[in-house]
């Protein structure tokens, strides 16, 4: 079998855009700011998906290190599918392939897909050129829709094949394959702009294979977790609905642990989040913005629209916890604001908030966001006008990759199950906070991550309320 590989594209050009000239970039930051810019022959969103082909290609590059050439083999495609499919068999199996030994580099990937029922033959044919239909058969099973096709009566299969432009006579001896293709057409796993490639006789192109993998990720919930784009006509409605259906996060076991650190003064506050809502956006293009007022969020989306900012939007429920001093008076609870009294007579308050993550179309728009927010959503005086509703003295937005005009801090997290608590600190304080978390919950997953935050919030951490 000839040697095959998946190319990992590491483009460092974005570093010069996001980081000022002469600024040192640590190895970890340089790796995280790697961004691949790609171009596609299919312009605009693919029919029915809302995502351009280049979006899938870029996502595969930056999240999985997957890059196809137009002369790819079945082996390269199998390896890529194995990378993106989250399958853990109950019992480890070791299939005996007719043309692939257990010592072959491809064997673990092929065995994984065979055990998952994604590969159904013991003949892998790893060196063969990847054909469009072969790629589609694998994608159908990886996306979990093959059984749908098997329910189709013959006339329904024939109708879908006709839409694709394939003759039913081509599948006289393989009706299950025809049914799988029909399901791919009807569900949109195969977008209509790729129909001509699917029925053609030429090998699959890199773009065709990348789009299929992107669709598989979407079908399995492993693509971007977006409620829409800033340019969508219904994005504000979707945003409001997401906020309205979110509640205070409970996570009682995790909250009990972090409250001990809060009561002891080891942290001044923390957030509770559910990682199932994490955006899964491409980090070098993403900023996350936190607030507690939905009217503010609606106006923020409108502001970005008015500035021509194009971005995917992710909504993440968040609960903020902090000490409420008894001298502030009796706290008034609401549906979105609860308190519990602690031993010294003070309270721990829990407030419903949210994070909005934006994956911008360009690095330039990510940079421009800072100027827009400081001009229209940063409060500088009590009587200031011309700001978004409920603008804060210290707006909070941050990047997980280095970016100019932002300051580095540390996000200390403690994870239990699907929930995690996070507390932002100056980097000089991070080791103390992480050590406190580990002492309180030695079996929990405690991590510290570097973030780049807007300067007003950094000043807040320094003790400057403005």
Structure description:
A hairpin with a 2-residue loop joins strand 8 and strand 9 (419-425). Helices cover 37% and strands 17% of the residues. The protein is α+β, with helices and mostly antiparallel strands and 466 residues long.
What's the short story on this structure?
It is built from 17 helices and 10 strands. The chain is an alpha+beta fold and 466 residues long. The chain starts with 12 loop residues before the first helix and ends with a helix.
Characteristic key phrases:
about 475 residues; alpha+beta; 8-stranded antiparallel beta barrel; 17 helices; about 35% helix
What's the arrangement of secondary structure elements?
Blueprint: H1 13-18, H2 27-32, H3 53-64, H4 74-84, H5 107-115, H6 132-142, H7 146-150, H8 154-164, H9 175-187, H10 195-199, H11 206-219, E1 228-229, H12 235-244, H13 252-263, E2 269-274, E3 286-291, H14 294-306, E4 311-324, E5 337-341, E6 347-360, H15 363-376, E7 396-399, E8 406-416, E9 419-425, H16 430-440, E10 445-454, H17 455-462
Antiparallel strand pairs: 1-4, 2-4, 2-9, 3-6, 3-7, 4-6, 5-6, 7-10, 8-9, 8-10
Helix pairs in contact: 3-11, 4-5, 4-6, 4-11, 6-9, 6-11, 8-9, 12-14
